[in-house]
Every structure is written in C-alpha cells, then in structure tokens.
C-alpha cells in the first residue's frame, strides 16, 4: 500500500469518540490506548514521556532554532514550495492550507484558503512558528518529521486539546545519505475532511523530491571518488573522501582502519556509505563544509582520536566542489596543513537513559522494561526487538537512533545490523579466522555476529 493509500485508509475510519476517550485516559497517566492507531499512540508516548508537552497548550511557540542551509536544503525548499504553490488553489477551494516547514518544525511557507489561514493564525499555525512534536505535540508536521512514512492526524489524535478541531496530513523529505529530515510538507483543514487527493499528492511530492536528492548525492559521490583518485596519485599518505554529512565514500587500506570502516569499492550509492562513528571527525568535516562555503580555497587541520589508536592522529581537510557546490572533503591522515579546526566543546550533560523501549504488536503499543529486551536487529528502516514477549517491531525507526537513545543504558552496537543488551550476552564464540559471535540469552539462543570494526569495543565491554 502506498503512502497516499495509507492516509486515505486512515481517513475513512475516524473513531473520534473512542480516540478522545483514549486521549483523556492517556494524558491522565494510563497506558490504555485501545482504539488508537499505533503511530498515533507511539507519538503520544513521546509527547508524554520524552518531550513532556502540556496537552493544554493552546498555540505553537515562536521558532528559535534555525538549520544551517546546505545546497540540499535549498533544493528541497525550492521544490516543495513550487509543488505547494501549484496545488494551493485546489486546496484552498476545499477550505485547506498547505505548509512547508524545516527540520526543526519551523514553518517557512504557507498557502491556501484565506479564511482558514485566519483561524490558523489563532494557534500560530503560520510562518516562523514551531510545530515539532517537542513543541506542540502530535500533529501533521511534527509527527511526520519523526516518521519515515506519511502521517495523518485527525481531531483528538492531536496531543494538544486546542488542535482537536484540525485534520492534518504531512510527509517528510529526508537526506539521501543520513535519512535525517530536511523538511516537511503538510496539508491542514479546520473542522472538515482533507481533499481526497491529499494523500497521493503529498506522497508524489515527497517521492519526486527524494529522487532529486538521490541523483544529486550520486553525482556528488562520483565527483568525490574522482577527486580522491587524483589526490591519491600525487601522494601516498592515508586518504579518505567524506561527503558533507561526514559519511565515508571511499578510503584506502590505512585510512579505513583509522576510520573503522571497510576498505571497499567506492560507495557512490548514498544508501551504502559508512558512518565512521567518530564524532570529532564528523564535526570537523561539517566545520570544513561551513568554512569552505565562505571561502572555496579554505583548508584545515586538526588532531583526532581514531579507531585502534591510543594517541590523537593529525589530519588535514580539503573541500571538494562540483559546479560551485560543496560535495564533501578529502581527509589526509598523518599531516597538518591549513587553518586549525576548533576542537569540539565540552561534552553535553549526560542524558537520563530511558526506562523503557516501545514496541508494537498488531494494533497495540507494548512498553518494555530494558532488561526484557535481548537485542535489536535492523531490516532497512524497520527495527525488530527480540524480547521476553517474543519478536516485536520497534516504534523507533532506524537502528542508529535507537543506538543513540540506549548508548548509556547497557546496550552496545556490535554490527551494522545489531544492537545488543550486554547483560543478555550468555556466551562468546571465537571462530577459526578470529570472528566473534555472541550467544544471546533468549529463547532461540540467537548467535549475533560481531563486525571487525566493533570487535575491540565488544572485548572491552565484556572484559575478554
């Protein structure tokens, strides 16, 4: 079923009375969400447990955060603005409005019915106000930014009582490499149903924009590989090429060890690039991008702790451009050349680890204490949890995000596809070529592979 079809199917089954009763129970502290769609129940859980949004909020706050705009952002806003303007008349005739917001939920453009826009202004559904979930709870724009699929939020499915008269449908456009949201397109209507074609239109707009981003990412990858080979021919120092998100496109044998990624064929396809999981390296690459946008001749240097190294390694960073647009950086290890890159500031205050992980079964949200989760396995954007209650789909999409949330709660990423609860590792098996496998304490005695790059961290964590 396509994204547009999913929105239309949800719209045909409102169940407003049942949902409102569940909403009243849930804001009162109960976990009973019978009759509520899973994606909405999961959003409510985020609003109550993580964001602590007051359900009596009556208007969106002024947006205070701005995202640094890259060429990808400019492409997305241009395309979404064009598509929104193209259907503005059709949406206006149906009494609706169209909005485009950035990754923080800050509305940057609005089109549609003037009467509805006047009503929307009363709750700050207007440019320069913030509609992220953390600011205004469950809503079309904010919930779409949290989801990898189009979302429809009707009436009392909104977290805040003041928005219960609205129906909204939104879809996020995501970075081709990192899958982080760049922008969100949304259609809203006050006290009425959305146009029948809204779901298909939103999905089509997002799909076309994503295709443009993937094409640009592939072109950028090709240019980075060409720049890498040209630089490699002039020097034998360890070398890698990183895209603007700090992901590795290609690295030689030595650089791949330092970055903790495979030395493999170039990753021109944006979906198969490697995250070096070196926050200082990614921070330095992004700083280089900001500097190079102001001065194309900029080069920089710094020192970084790399994988399997006890001392920091000097690196130099040079930007790479395609048709005047920054596409990434070349990173040389072992040499200093150029302006000193500022070191990252003091580490952020430790976050309080979550007490539970949210899974879904059929039409229910399952709240799992952490000890009941044995391991998590990714399958594309979906994440499956092996638990004492059986195999459940995680509410959170993307293993990277779940890894970040559970990093301080006794979980460890051991493989590109696996995150394990260290307290549920029963045995460690070494094979002839040195590969490690973890025998997990679940009902299937699952054997989880440990990748070469993660083996040192696993040995340290398990003291073996």
From TrEMBL:
SMART domains: LytTR. GO terms for molecular function: DNA binding; phosphorelay response regulator activity. Residues 357-464 form the HTH LytTR-type domain. This is Fis family transcriptional regulator. It comes from Amycolatopsis bartoniae.
